[in-house]
Amino acid sequence: MNQRVLHQDQAASPAVPTAGEAHGTIRLTTAQALVRYLAAQRVAVEDDNDAGGSEPLFGGVFAIFGHGNVAGIGEALYQHRHELPTLRAHNEQAMAHSAIAYAKAHFRRRMMAVTTSIGPGATNLVTAAALAHVNRLPVLLLPGDIFVSRAPDPVLQQLEDFHDGGISANDALKPVSRYFDRIVHPAQLLNALPRAIRVLTDAALCGPVTLALPQDVQATAWDFPLSFFEPRVVKPHAPAPRTDEIDAAVERLRRAKRPMIVAGGGVLYGGATASLQAFAATYGIPVAETQAGKSALAWDDPLNTGALGVTGSPAANALAHDADCVLAIGTRLQDFTTGSNTLFTQADVIGINANAFDGLKHRALAVEADARLALDPLTERLHGWHADRTWTARAQQAATDWRHTVGTLTHTPQRDTVLPYDADVIGAVQRSSPQSTTDDIVVCAAGTLPAELHKLWRAGRPGAYHVEYGYSCMGYEIAGGLGAKLARPEREVIVMVGDGSYLMMNSEIATSVMLGAKLIIVVLDNRGYGCINRLQQACGSAPFNNMFDDCAQGPLGAPAIDFAAHARALGAHAEHVANVAALEAALQRARAADRTYVISIDTDASRTTDDGGWWWEVAVPEVSAREAVRTARAQYETHLAARTEGVNHPASDDASDANN
Predict the structure, then answer these.
(1) Interatomic CA distance for residues 495 and 518, integer angstroms
(2) CA 179, CA 174: separation in Å to the nearest integer?
(3) Pfam families, per this entry (predicted)?
C-alpha cells in the first residue's frame, strides 16, 4: 500500500503489559487479538531482487464504523494503526471492491480486510463477496454481529428470523464466502484465524473469508498464548502436478498438430507469465487471453492472438475454431470465453488449474496444479515436439494482422460531426501515455467497455489490464481503481467507466482524494445503459427502460448530468471535453495533476467494434406478440440445434454479439 498517503498519528503504539505475559500469555479482547494476529502476518516480497525480505500480508483494513464494530474492532485497530493502517471509505460494497482490487493488483499475494457494523453495513458486503468468490480473489470480511448473550435482543439493525434464533444478517454471506465462521468465544480465534489465512492464500481455495464478530464477543477478554502473535511469513500454497497427469497431458499434446493455449487469470496469479511465454515460443503454440488472463503475454508477442470468445479477436476465435487441442491454463472457462460452450467443441481440452473444479470443465483432461508448476515440467517433457509449422506461421500472421487492425481502429481520425465510440476513446488514452509501450493500468468492469478493452487495450506488462468480468459488476470501476492504485502507487491507474456505472457507485472518488491515491477517470457518457439496450433489441424487444430517452419520465424529463461538476464536488479535478482531440489534451493535464482527475466525454451508444466476437447464449422468449421477438427466437433455436450437433457458431447479428 502507498503508506505515504496515510496521514495518521505517527506516535508509537502503547504497549499493553499484562500479568500473564511472564507466563507466556497475554490478556486481550477478541478484537485486539484478531487485529494483532493480522498485523503479524507477513509474505515474501514479490521482487526477486529482494531475496529473503518480507512485507505485511495485509495492506490495511477498510472500515466504516457503526455500533456493531466501533467499540470493539475500532479500538483494536487504533492500537495497531501503524503496522495495520485503517482506511475510511464511503460505501461498504465499494470499500470491499477496493480491497478485492488491491489483491488482484498484487496477483493475490497481498490483500486487505474490511470491517462493517451489523445490519446494512454487513449486507452491503454481499455483492462484493460474490464478486471475489466468482473471481477467486482473497478478501477478509469482518462484519459486526448481534449479541451472543441475547440480553439486549433485538438490537438496532438486527434481522430476526422467526424460526431460528441463531441467524443474523451475516448468514447472507455464507453462500458467497469460501470460509465462514461466527466467533462466539475468544478461544475460537486460535482455530479460525489460521484457517482463514490458509483459504486466503491457497491457490485452489482462494476467495472471500467471513468472520462474523458479535458485539459482546469483540469486547470479551481472554488469555491468549503469546506465541500465537509471533510474526510469521505466510507461504501461499500452490499444488504441484501429479506425474501421471503430466504424462497424460504430454501424450495428448504430442498427438496435436494445431494446439492453442487459453491463458486465464491463474497464469498471472501463479507467477507463470515467463513460463507461458517460453512454453509458447519453444513449441510454436498460439495464445489467446481471457478477460482475467489478459496481460499474461505482452500485446506485441508474436504468438499473442488477442482476446478469446464473445468479446474476442477474429484471430483468436478463428484459431480456436480450428484447433485440435486447447490447453486451458488457469481459467474458469466461463461462457464468454467458450462462446457458451460452442467455440472449440472439436478440440481435446487439457485443463491446468489449481482448482480441480475448474480444471475439469469442458470435459477436460485435468492437471490439478498451479500454472507455473505445470508449465515448467511440460516444457521439459515435450522436448523434440513442435506444433505444425504451418499452424504456427498462420497464428503469427493472424496475430500480426490483428495488431494492425487494432492500430487502425484506435487511430481513426475523429470527425466533429460524429460522436466518438469506445475504440476512439481507448486510442486517445493509450496515445496519452508518455511511454511507447504503456505502463498504465486500465480498470473497468461492466457494460460495453470490457468488450472493447478486451479486444483493443495494449497491455505491455502483467497487470496492465485490470477488468473485473467474472461478475461483471457495475460500480466496481472507481472503487476497484482505488484498490489498484493503493497496490501499485508508482503506476498510472486509469479507470474507464460508463455513465451508468459511474452513477451506480462513485463515492470512492472522495476517498481517493483523501488518501492521495490519484486516479484518472474517463467517463464515457452515452446517456444510459447502451450495452443492455443493444442486447434488448437484438433479442427482438423494443428499446425500453435502458436509455434515458426510453424511460418513464416526469414533467421535467431526464436530467442533464454534469459529471465533471459532480466529481469536483467530491474533491477531484474534472472537466468535460467535446471530442477526441480535446480528450487527448485533457489527459495530459490529468497526468500532470496532483489528485484524482475526472474527464467526461459524450459517446455513441450504438457503435461498437464489428471485428471479432462469437455467439453468446441469451434465452429469447418462446412466445411473444412481437414479430421481432419471434424472429430472434428462431435464430436462437438454430444456434441451439447447431450446438447440439457440435457445430461451431461464429458471431452473428442476433443476441450473440450484442454485448460487444
Answers:
(1) 11
(2) 8
(3) TPP_enzyme_C, TPP_enzyme_M, TPP_enzyme_N
Distance set, CA 422 to CA 106, 288, 447, 531 (Å): 28, 22, 11, 12
pLDDT in tens, 162-208: 999 999 999 999 999 999 999 999 999 999 999 999 999 999 999 99
Q: Measure the CA–CA gap between 408 and 5, rounded to whole angstroms.
A: 40
CA 76/CA 36 separation, integer angstroms:
8
Backbone angles phi, psi at 372, to 5 degrees: -65, -40
Give the three-class secondary structure for 640: helix
**pLDDT surpasses 60 at 657:** no
Query: Helix, strand or coil for residue 345?
Result: coil
The β-bridge partners of 180 are: 210
In this predicted structure, the answer to whether residue 246 has a pLDDT above a threshold of 50 is: yes
Kindly indicate the confidence band of residue 3, based on its pLDDT and cuts at 50, 70 and 90: very low
Separation of alpha carbons 181 and 365, rounded Å: 35
List, in order, residues 6 or more apart from 357 with CB less than 8 Å away.
none
Confidence of residue 8 (pLDDT cuts 50, 70, 90): very low
Q: Give Cα separations from 431 to 7, 393, 562, 588, 608 (angstroms).
A: 35, 30, 26, 10, 20
Other C-beta atoms lying within 10 Å of the C-beta of residue 166? 11
Q: β-pairing, 465-467 with 441-444?
A: parallel
pLDDT for residue 18: 54
**pLDDT at residue number 532:** 96
Residue 651: the pLDDT is: 60
What single-letter DSSP state applies at residue 55?
E
pLDDT digits (tens, 9 = 90+) for 72-114: 999 999 999 999 999 999 999 999 999 999 999 999 999 999 9
Domains in the chain and their CATH numbers? 3-8+23-234 (3.40.50.970), 243-402 (3.40.50.1220), 410-548+558-602 (3.40.50.970)
Q: Minimal CA–CA distance to 446: which of 457, 458, 454, 436?
A: 454
Is residue 28 helix, strand or coil? strand
DSSP β-ladder status, 86-88 and 287-289: unpaired
Closest Cα to residue 461, out of 332, 304, 235, 334? 304
For 492: left if phi > 0, alpha if psi spans -120 to 50, otherwise beta; the answer is: beta
Side chain identity, residue 31: A
Dihedral angle sign, alpha carbons of residues 358, 362, 366, 371:
negative
Report whether pLDDT(387) > 60.
yes
- Average pLDDT score over residue span 260-289: 98
- Based on DSSP, count helices (H) and strands (E) in the chain, helices before strands: 24, 23
* Grid cell digits, residue 611: 471485428
Cα separation, 426 vs 458, whole angstroms: 10
Instruction: Tally Cβ neighbours within 10 Å of residue 587.
Output: 22
Percent of the chain's residues with pLDDT above 90: 89
Report which of 620, 602, 603, 601 is spatially closest to residue 658, judged by C-alpha positions.
620
* pLDDT, position 16: 52
DSSP 3-state assignment of 434? coil
